[in-house]
TrEMBL record:
Pfam families: Fasciclin (PF02469). The chain crosses the membrane at residues 655-672. Keywords: Membrane, Signal, Transmembrane, Transmembrane helix. Residues 1-25 form the signal peptide. Coiled coil: none annotated. One of its GO terms (molecular function) is cell adhesion molecule binding. This is Fasciclin-1-like protein. Gene3D superfamilies: FAS1 domain. GO terms for cellular component: extracellular matrix; extracellular space. Residues 30-176, 193-337, 341-485, 489-635 form the FAS1 domain. The keyword Phosphoprotein does not apply.
Length: 673
């Protein structure tokens, strides 16, 4: 095709595409809701539900109406959570009408959770919501009906007949399920709080929270529009008091919010707000690793506090979410918000995601006791996922006995005997330095912009990020972090490959294909001490032995490389710098014995082998399965590089192959003659 014609062709193609889209839209606009449903294969299950009832078919063909149609996938998901019979008996008679509104509602009229009354007046209103974030079309808004996302909107349909009315159809990704009340109308949040049996929720104990609401004479706020969080475990542990602020912290006024319309970690003002106290609320969506279990949490953050109410966050797990009521939405949670009446020790014990950390603390009662005694502290609690990469193949903790003094020190790395909160760091330019209970420096830092700022903690060579910060307790503050401080999560193989000072050592160890020398460093069941020559050490060795090193560097004889590197590693234990300074005098390697010579004057440590003395120039590079110390010399002699010494099994194998090839060639030549 002529290149000059190409732009014209593309323009015509675009015009044709736009014309096709316009024609399709026009075809939709001439249809009624029943025709659109019938012609879309992704809506066939909904079509089957209405197809056998002439009344519904007539309404969808002729009436002024808005219909919310769940996709086949949405109905299948509903089926998985409910019995087939419930779908037949319940969906047809009740829930089907909950998807129909006898008015034409266009998106331009949707406001923040504007209510719409469904055909079935026994059910609560449908809440129509818009949000600015659309995961599928970033430049457009998202539209929700209750918790269901609007996938496609067809707003200019027309019913049949002489008095035909306008229709709108919205394809949604969830069934609009609602609990059916045992009376003619849906309850308000207050009515549900007083009588959970209206929705068949008798198994949730709301009575203690109701008692607190009535004691503070705050029943009226549960009859106004909003979002309501009702805790089931209301047990007084003493101070602080379950007062008016605590009750109000469970209500977001005027905003009926479902899980998906709340947005992950978006903050909302609660009714606990005045000149003295300000409490915000946000939703947190967490996936538990391995089980892929979805966990939903609500947290309050007391950002303005007084002498009674402490600053900080309180976390509560959602037990049953998205319960539409007459005046908004109710979410049932497991314990009260805002109330910091639980000690850190109790919080650690009750949190499912902190089981490994608490189990280790139980093996060190003195550490657990100290956490309980000190009333002004910060605990950095690694979640269970943080430990997952630190387990060996036998699911034992990497390199450290769980009841050892070393483990005790590791646990103390996670305790700071001062309160360090997110807001404190904001006031101190975003970072601050403290010391752990074990005397190890701990750096707290905020990273990211204000709206997306995250708390990070660096200590013991590990940088951790807080997944949940500022969790308030009666005796301090807690941050849940994603790494174990002081315990690396990479093997020494990964430490070797990522250290620019050890490029040559890694290159030489890579010789020999997939079963090269370096591969042993991936073994999580071993504990290595590796005295790794630096790049400069190899350069010095090259200058002293140029021809031999050339063969070594090119990988001509991998057995020589393995033998030399074996002299630099011990698989009999992990010896840190402190061990080499104080207790260890000799280290047995695979290829000989190394003498450890600490210099008390300079505090340098030397490694000696057959008169060659190498200095440790960088120590304690910890990995999951050992430690690396970088040395300034290669522990090898000229004799190690002799070719004769290198004729190993692999070399003989090569000679044998060449011999066979020669014999085959001779036999083939004789046959030709």
């Amino acid at each position: 095709m002529n290149t000059l014609l190409l732009p014209i062709f593309l323009l015509q193609l675009i015009n044709c595409s736009n014309l096709i889209t316009a024609v399709q839209a026009a075809q939709y606009n001439n249809n009624n809701a029943f025709q659109v449903i019938s012609e879309n294969p992704e809506l066939s299950m909904f079509k089957n539900l209405i197809g056998n009832d002439t009344a519904y078919s007539f309404m969808l063909k002729s009436w002024k109406m808005t219909v919310f149609v769940p996709t086949n996938q949405a109905i299948k998901m509903f089926l998985e959570r409910n019995s087939q019979q419930q779908l037949v008996d319940g969906f047809n008679s009740d829930l089907l009408q909950y998807h129909l509104v006898s008015a034409t509602i266009k998106r331009e009229s949707w406001t923040e959770a504007s209510p719409a009354n469904a055909l079935n007046g026994q059910f609560p209103p449908l809440y129509l919501t818009t949000t600015d974030y659309n995961p599928y079309k970033p430049d457009e808004k998202s539209y929700f009906v209750n918790n269901a996302f609007v996938i496609e909107a067809i707003e200019d349909l027309q019913g049949n007949g002489p008095n035909a009315e306008g229709q709108a159809l919205y394809i949604i990704d969830e069934v609009l399920s609602s609990l059916k009340p045992n009376r003619p109308t849906a309850p308000t949040a207050l009515e549900l709080l007083k009588e959970p049996s209206i929705y068949g929720l008798d198994n949730f104990d709301m009575s203690k929270f109701l008692q607190k609401v009535q004691e503070k004479q705050l029943e009226s706020i549960f009859s106004t529009p909003g979002t309501f969080f009702i805790p089931t475990k209301v047990a007084s542990r003493g101070t602080p008091e379950f007062d008016e602020y605590v009750v109000k912290a469970h209500v977001i006024k005027d905003k009926p919010l479902f899980i998906r319309t709340m947005g992950d970690r978006r903050s909302y003002n609660t009714m606990a707000f005045d000149d003295n106290v300000d409490v915000e609320l946000s939703f947190i969506n967490k996936t538990v690793r391995f089980t892929v279990e979805q966990m939903y949490y609500i947290q309050t953050n007391t950002i303005k506090n007084d002498a009674i109410h402490k600053a900080g966050r309180v976390l509560s797990r959602m037990i049953k979410a998205n319960i539409p009521v007459k005046n908004g939405v109710v979410h049932i949670i497991d314990k009260p918000l805002m109330l910091m009446d639980m000690a850190i020790r109790d919080f650690l014990r009750e949190q499912n995601k902190l089981k490994r950390f608490y189990k280790l603390l139980e093996k060190h009662p003195d550490v657990l006791s100290n956490i309980g005694k000190n009333s002004n502290k910060t605990v950095l609690a690694p979640d269970d996922n943080a430990f997952a990469n630190l387990m060996d193949n036998n699911q034992n903790f990497a390199g450290i006995s769980e009841d050892s003094d070393e483990m005790k020190k590791l646990l103390l790395n996670h305790v700071v005997y001062q309160q360090v909160s997110f807001s404190d760091l904001k006031r101190s330019a975003g970072f601050a330095n403290y010391t752990s209970a074990n005397g190890v420096p701990v750096m707290f830092r905020l990273v990211g912009t204000d709206s997306n700022a995250r708390l990070t903690v660096e200590s013991g060579g590990v940088n951790a990020t807080s997944s949940l910060s500022d969790l308030g307790a009666s005796d301090g503050i807690l941050h849940i972090i994603d790494r174990v401080l002081g315990m690396p999560f990479n093997t020494i193989y990964e430490k070797l490959i990522n250290n620019p000072m050890l490029n040559e050592t890694f290159k030489i160890g890579s010789q020999g294909g997939t079963q090269n020398w370096n591969s042993k460093l991936l073994d999580k069941n071993k504990r290595y001490t590796f005295f790794a020559p630096s790049n400069t050490a190899w350069m010095e060795f090259d200058r002293a032995n140029p021809s031999e090193f050339k063969q070594l560097d090119q990988g001509i004889y991998p057995s020589i490389s393995r033998a030399i590197l074996d002299r630099h590693i011990s698989a009999k234990g992990q010896y840190n710098k402190k061990d080499l300074e104080q207790t260890v005098k000799k280290v047995d390697t695979i290829q000989g014995e190394l003498n450890i010579l600490p210099d008390p004057t300079t505090r340098e440590i030397y490694i000696e082998w057959e008169g060659t003395r190498a200095k440790i120039i960088s120590s304690d590079i910890h990995g999951l399965n050992g430690v690396i110390h970088i040395i300034d010399k290669v522990l090898a002699k000229k004799r190690d590089l002799k070719v004769n010494a290198a004729i190993n099994g692999q070399s003989y194998c090569h000679l044998f192959v060449y011999l066979i090839m020669g014999l085959v060639s001779i036999m083939f030549t004789q046959q030709l003659r």
